[in-house]
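Throughout our pipeline, every protein is held as a single compact record rather than as scattered files. The record that follows is passed on verbatim for readers who wish to inspect the format.
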Amino acid sequence: MQRSDTRSTTDESQERTAPHSLSDIGSDLQADTATEQSTSSRVGMDGSWFSVKFLLASVLLIGTGAVLGGMIPIVGALGRIGGVFLAAFLLGTVTNTTRYVETGVAGAGVVALSFAIGLLSVGVLPVGLDFLQQYGIGFSALGAAIGGLTAVVGHYFGRDLRSGLTDEIPSKN
């Protein structure tokens, strides 16, 4: 059985042999470019590269995971990061397509917003206003990087688990 995130071509005329000269390489690149343009010319319409619906679903699920993870006493921000990881892991196990871009963008946005809101509570104090002005954007960018990376890794492990559960085990005959 074939993995769901790989594409197979049934047309034998598209099978390529190793190129023997530079002109063969150039013609192969032009043919590959033409094939990619014909299959994914409208981004988001067929869901081949980016899906706005999946991005919104990712934001909702990852946001819920971050809020629920942040409700764990004592761990605070680590619980939010854990909630982002678990939500992205769940997205990876449920979906049958790879959606790393949407999941990463959703994770980055949710954690950056979470870091920014966390800094607003410090900004009420007179010393906190100066701190917020100097380092607020930097902390939000750090949160975006951590959230995006955590969401992509969670989605990857979820896809890996799904692949392991749905692939057939080869029999030895």
Q: What stands out?
A: The helical segments are 22-39, 52-70, 77-94, 100-122, 126-166. Residues 1-47 have pLDDT under 50 and may be disordered. Residues 126-166 form the longest helix (41 residues).
